[in-house]
Design brief:
Largest sheet: 4 strands, mixed
Oligomer: single chain
CATH architecture: Roll
Strand order of the largest sheet: 1-4-3-2
Shape: globular
Number of strands: 8
Radius of gyration: 15 Å
Structural class: alpha/beta
CATH superfamily: 2,3-Dihydroxybiphenyl 1,2-Dioxygenase, domain 1
Strand content: 25-35%
Helix content: 10-25%
CATH class: Alpha Beta
Distance between the termini: 30 Å
Order of helices and strands: EHEEEEHEEE
Length: 125
């Protein structure tokens, strides 16, 4: 069977950054923080479009998380309402870079979360 789409992205976040990273995705990007489906794990499940897109959790076995994307360069999310997203990023004082990829059919915003993970936001046009 072929892969259809991203199910979710799991980000290991050290405790001192957890609230700041959660706030970035909720306040700046507009995801919703909902209870985790499985108990016993610390962190947040962040939903968009009714689906859990990003899981934030403490590093496993007490390990220290590597900041930044390490071997992963970035992840991308399909979004709607470019102007509302830019306004939300501006309100949250999150810098972004905009790229028009009109031949490909979308506009992109590039941001970096507080843990150093690069996030690509794609807006179909």
């Amino acid at each position: 069977m072929p892969v259809q789409s991203i199910n979710h992205i799991n980000i290991a976040v050290p405790q001192p950054l957890m609230q700041q990273v959660r706030d970035f995705y909720v306040e700046a990007l507009g995801l919703q923080d909902r209870p985790r489906e499985r108990g016993g794990l610390s962190g947040h499940w962040l939903y968009g479009g009714g689906a859990p897109l990003i899981h934030l959790m403490l590093p496993r076995d007490g390990a220290t998380a590597v900041q930044g994307s390490a071997a992963i360069d970035h992840f991308a999310l399909t979004c709607t309402d470019l102007e509302a997203m830019k306004a939300g990023l501006d309100r949250a004082d999150v810098p972004y870079r905009e790229r028009e990829a009109l031949q490909e059919g979308f506009v992109q915003l590039f941001v970096t979360d507080p843990a150093g993970i690069r996030v690509e936001l794609n807006f179909p046009v």
